[in-house]
Amino acid sequence: xxxxxxxxxxxxxxxxxxxxxxxxxxxxxxxxxxxxxxxxxxxxxxxxxxxxxxxxxxxxxxxxxxxxxxxxxxxxxxxxxxxxxxxxxxxxxxxxxxxxxxxxxxxxxxxxxxxxxxxxxxxxxxxxxxxxxxxxxxxxxxxxxxxxxxxxxxxxxxxxxxxxxxxxxxxxxxxxxxxxxxxxxxxxxxxxxxxxxxxxxxxxxxxxxxxxxxxxxxxxxxxxxxxxxxxxxxxxxxxxxxxxxxxxxxxxxxxxxxxxxxxxxxxxxxxxxxxxxxxxxxxxxxxxxxxxxxxx
Length: 296
Description:
Largest sheet: 2 strands, antiparallel
Oligomer: single chain
Number of helices: 11
């Protein structure tokens, strides 16, 4: 997923805060197995994406995430047979031993698949579409300028190297007597050519940075820029991220949102769980209520 600029409060927040907000949603997903709470987190993620104007990117990520979630949901009942409700007896299957498909295994597989899908949506789609990677990397300049620049260059060069590899593979197929699929020796030649091109590009970039005075004493001793003050959107989403983490940790410590898959599935759906679900949705979407200062 690539960052897209939208007129939303989440895009108006600085990159580290928006990234922390997405990370807090992922933390909430990993903290619970209760379907009721996971459903509330799913509503929060979808609502945040819609309010941020990246609903289409979230749907696109779901098209890739759903097959993986289905695989997880279908594999779990085949490898975990601790449940008491046997639905299907597959008998002895060689080295796999005796396989019994249980209802508890199916339910827990569905929960694991849903968690994996929500992690993809929050940690991949929402994070990638709302957080500017360049701005996020600039935040590491105070820690290590060289590390931030190296990471930025590495991210930028990955698509270039991929295109080089595809062009070299196409050129190889055009040679007389070339097979449809390259062998080990031919693949090694392609990797060698791509690596040589990457080193050449790295030398060019290094020479350009040296000419511009990067990392020289004069550049290091330049005038310091004043830090930009936090906006209302920064404070709102930082508070929301903190609130989500506090809710997740507090619920786990108090035993709210419990879920037992085996030997019999027990899902806690009492008033505390419903209150937790409503609180998660409210804390996640409240920062979007203030649209002051958002570019239209």
